[in-house]
Input
Amino acid sequence: MSTVVLLLFTGLGLGALYFLVAAGLSLIYGLMGVLNFAHGAFLTLGAFTGWEIARRTGSDNWWTFLLSLLVGAAAGAAFAAFTEFVLIRRLYQRHIEQVLITVGLSLAAVALFDGIWGTDPVFIQGPAWFKETTEILGARVPNDRFVCIIAAVLVLLAMVFFLKNTRYGMIIRAGVENRSMVTALGIDVRKAFTLVFTIGGAAAGLGGVLASHYFGYVSPMLGGSLLIFAFIVTVIGGLGSLTGAAIAAVAVAVLQQFANFYLGGTGDFVVVLALALVLLFRPSGLLGRTS
Amino acid sequence: MTTDTDAAGTAGNASATGTDTKDTARGPADTRGTETAGRPTPPGRSRPTRRTIAGAAAGLAGMVLLVLLPLLNLSLPGVLPGPTYTPGSLQLLAMCMLMAAAALTYHLLLGVAGLLSFGHALYFGAGVYGLAIILQNLDIPLLPAMGLTLLVVIVLAHVVGSISLRVSGIPFAMVTLAFAQAGSVIVGRNPDGTTGGDEGLTLRTDNLPDFLVGVVNTRNLYWLALAVLVAVFIVVTWVQSSRAGHVAAAVRENELRVRVLGLQPYLVKLLIFVVSAILVSIIGMVFLLLQSGAVPRAMSADLTITLLVMVVLGGVGSRWGAVIGGVFYTILDQRLTTLANSDAIDALPDILRVPLSEPLFILGTLFILVVLFLPGGLTGTAQRLAQRRNRRVRGTGDDSTGMDRTATSREILEESA
Output
């Protein structure tokens, strides 16, 4: 029983990270049709800036941790806004070129991170509480899992609130549904594009800082490895659906943890299998619109 | 998709004007006869006789030069590490050939069928690792081992292709990426010590013919790589000009229309997918012989992205573009790595040294610039420059207005798509 609970919480923590990456990806794809390969770079940048903050202000401290979360999210958001404004904006409606741009950007960015921070993983320390465990139903769950889960839930709630109750949120939702109609109503959708990119980048940057605590290290490859699972999560959840991304993130991560433990480290393989099954029986994803 | 380039341009023309379909689909020899009908002359084919002969002669001379290269003592300082007969240079040249051939197979996916796959490395890696594992564990000669590997790849390509082609466009890209990632993970996990994990596998040479083993025989491997490139080029040309190739190009332009005509896009796309996978796995096998070992990079998403970059650099939709892109990228990558380790870079201040010592940073930036400012890649730009020169020579006649008209109608098409 205690193993199951431990796996469940580890899976939830990982799912929280997947969600933070996938949420931005899914929204960006839903609104703009851009598959953003540079999203992993946003995350890595967030993780590295968070680590720099922690290193310079003394790592064993809650305020530092909160500050690194904020700065990491801000760095991710700034990078994302820059990407949208300078590179993607020139190529509206040319989806393949947009994908190519983000591919090139992720190559260049990861190489630059390699150059600045080195290719080896940098180990990271958080507040001492992170290393302790809390006992739930006999399982000793490391505390950093809870931080990830809480942060992801807060981000989800904030995003849902933003999308449901603010003017720009409504424009974004309307844009996902039918962009040409929104344009026809005289609303400048391009602002919404930049906004979605910024929000996605902020979530990814936040995810980067959390991921560095979850895994205990930062490396330039961090974003790339999470990004692939985030892609799987967005496809399974249904492209453009935030709730779908949340559900799929948790499902994928928990499945992965259980398969890793009970089926001899086959977690990644089982996830790809799940993707194949979803595509065979429901090509538009769990909560995707059937087209 | 860029429509300025060779094949894409032809297809764009055809769908834009509607009536040209029959002529443009055929080769240059046929177009010559119908040129007088007031149709805009295809640029670059204005004086076909003299040009084609000169082109064929240049091609033949180039081919002879490439074949004789290992026997010559040519130095290209800045491009090759040494004279052309040295193993180091031959190794690099052979790598260029293989990468150009691999880029050609990717061109078959992206340029012909319009399939943006991020999982092409899976089949390359399957060729590399399949052959390496079979040679390691079974006592059979090279050719049967290659046949066995090919069989595995054919099955794999059918399974993965039939699943991932259920979605198209961007989701297809994600799904192929996921499958390739699964392959990459399996290689990294090293089940029962078969793949060697991060270390990779060293090629077991017991059952290989002698002329393919050892540094002394690099020139044989070079000739093998050259033969592979030529063979792949011929096969790709053949597939592209076959009925299936035409249907695939039509699917790329307008899938619905193909379906309305009663053809099956799914099967044609699967065919192209499998052919391209088979070709790239063969290239992978030769890559294994050349590198005398299998490395995890052969199956990583990075490799697919490299192929994509090559094709886009050269120009999407153009076969020569893929070849040029492959050669250009491989040499540039090698040169930049040498440059990164040189003293000149080390002496620079940090802000210049860090980016310049990362070859991938320069290549990635170059790639972004090409996508932004040179649609059509290197070949597309060369074509456009040639066109501009032609127009200036002949003045503004029917030609330019005709071309402008096609350009406008293409733009309209793109906007409506």
Q: What stands out?
A: Chain A touches chain B through 43 residues (CB under 8 Å). Residues 18 and 229 of chain A are 7 Å apart (CA to CA). The radius of gyration of chain A is 19 Å. The domain at 2-281 of chain A is CATH 1.10.3470 (ABC transporter involved in vitamin B12 uptake, BtuC).
